[in-house]
UniProtKB/TrEMBL annotation:
Organism for this UniProt entry: Salmonella enterica subsp. enterica serovar Montevideo str. S5-403
GO molecular function (one): structural constituent of ribosome
Lineage: Bacteria, Pseudomonadati, Pseudomonadota, Gammaproteobacteria, Enterobacterales
InterPro entries: Ribosomal_uL3, Ribosomal_uL3_bac/org-type, Ribosomal_uL3_CS, Ribosomal_uL4, Ribosomal_uL4-like, Ribosomal_uL4_dom_sf, Transl_B-barrel_sf
Gene3D superfamilies per record: 3.30.160.810, 3.40.1370.10, Translation factors
Family from the record: Belongs to the universal ribosomal protein uL3 family.
Sequence positions bearing N5-methylglutamine: 150
Name recorded for this polypeptide: Multifunctional fusion protein
Length: 365
């Protein structure tokens, strides 16, 4: 079953027939309008694209306006895509209501959590505080050591430290559906969902992805010696009997990742390059290089060419050019084999050498 897009109204409570109070989150689900249906023949996978709500005409871009006009639906607040299961069929322009979830028992809800600003490790990662006494007078809530000494001489990626807390994509799994009010377009789920009042949330029928002991994070070292500790023998903290260990028979949900086949990928590159030529954003030069790996030399060369936000594509990666561009904020250097649709549209201008053009033509032939 596909998901739907709604708006978080807030939290309240309802009472069961036995008088038990249940905290619920109220989600308003305006009609989701189908703007596009994707199939295996044209797109390589089956999915439905929907929009909801309304958007001011002066806020709708021309590509969006054309897309909505082609579908024959009113411009909405955004576009969301859901994979289709076998046997599910929808048509462009169709309206989908919350009644679709009338028989659903549990849903996963995704939203953007509230931003909490800069937070320390005690609040952000639930670190324990240091000693309140015994000579500690200034370091009660500091994180402590963040690494080793000269070896390896760096802070490992992913180290839990102070920083921005919240304001990130969060999914809460397996929330009970308490009530579906089709007349008022409301869905009531048990418990809280991420985000502030009025934010967009996506809910779908989806089992949680569980991890086996081979997939959970943790050391493979034996926690303590086999005998003589007085505790039960243990070989790994990843064991299913440990808290935050792996699951013996992990459940596997439906995979929503999208695989783009080679034909579609090449077609996207062709379309983008053609549009760059039409907009005079593609510049072809015989050769592009710098004498030494100096940022100053490359910056001056780009200034002489009146280029600021630029992607430079060469036949073979020039080490001097690559090193010179590392400290320039809106400049990137790639060889012809390293281009992709996102990088081509991310810059105002694209500079390609003659060798790079030949290689790209061979790739897209």
């Amino acid at each position: 079953m596909i998901g739907l897009v709604g708006k978080k109204v807030g939290m309240t409570r309802i009472f069961t027939e036995d008088g038990v109070s249940i905290p619920v989150t109220v989600i308003e689900v305006e009609a989701n309008r189908v703007t596009q249906v994707k199939d295996l023949a044209n797109d390589g996978y089956r999915a439905v694209q929907v929009t909801t709500g309304a958007k001011k005409a002066n806020r709708v871009t021309k590509p969006e306006a054309g897309h909505f006009a082609k579908a024959g639906v009113e411009a909405g607040r955004g576009l969301w895509e859901f994979r289709l299961a076998e046997g599910e069929e929808y048509t462009v322009g169709q309206s989908i209501s919350v009644e679709l979830f009338a028989d659903v028992k549990k849903v996963d809800v995704t939203g953007t959590s509230k931003g909490k600003g800069f937070a320390g490790t005690v609040k952000r990662w639930n670190f324990r505080t240091q000693d309140a006494t015994h000579g500690n007078s200034l370091s009660h809530r500091v994180p402590g050591s963040i690494g080793q000494n000269q070896t390896p001489g760096k802070v490992f990626k992913g180290k839990k430290m102070a920083g921005q807390m919240g304001n990130e994509r969060v999914t809460v799994q397996s929330l009970d559906v308490v009530r579906v009010d089709a007349e008022r377009n409301l869905l009531l789920v048990k418990g809280g969902v991420p985000g502030a009042t009025g934010c967009e949330v996506v809910f779908r029928v989806q089992p949680r992805a569980q991890k086996t002991r081979a997939e959970v994070t943790g050391s493979g070292k034996k926690p303590w010696r086999q005998k003589g500790t007085g505790r039960a023998r243990s070989g790994s903290i990843k064991s299913p009997i440990w808290r935050s260990g792996g699951v013996t028979f992990a459940a596997r949900p439906q995979d929503h990742s999208q695989k783009v086949n080679k034909k579609m990928y090449r077609g996207a590159l062709k379309s983008i390059l053609s549009e760059l030529v039409r907009q005079d954003r593609l510049i072809v030069v015989e050769k592009f290089s710098v004498e030494a790996p100096k940022t100053k030399l490359l910056a001056q060369k780009l200034k002489d060419m009146a280029l600021e936000d630029v992607l430079i594509i060469t036949g073979e990666l020039d080490e001097n050019l690559f090193l010179a561009a590392r400290n320039l904020h809106k400049v990137d250097v790639r060889d012809a084999t390293g281009i992709d649709p996102v990088s081509l549209i991310a810059f105002d201008k694209v500079v390609m050498t003659a060798d790079a053009v030949k290689q790209v033509e061979e790739m897209l032939a």
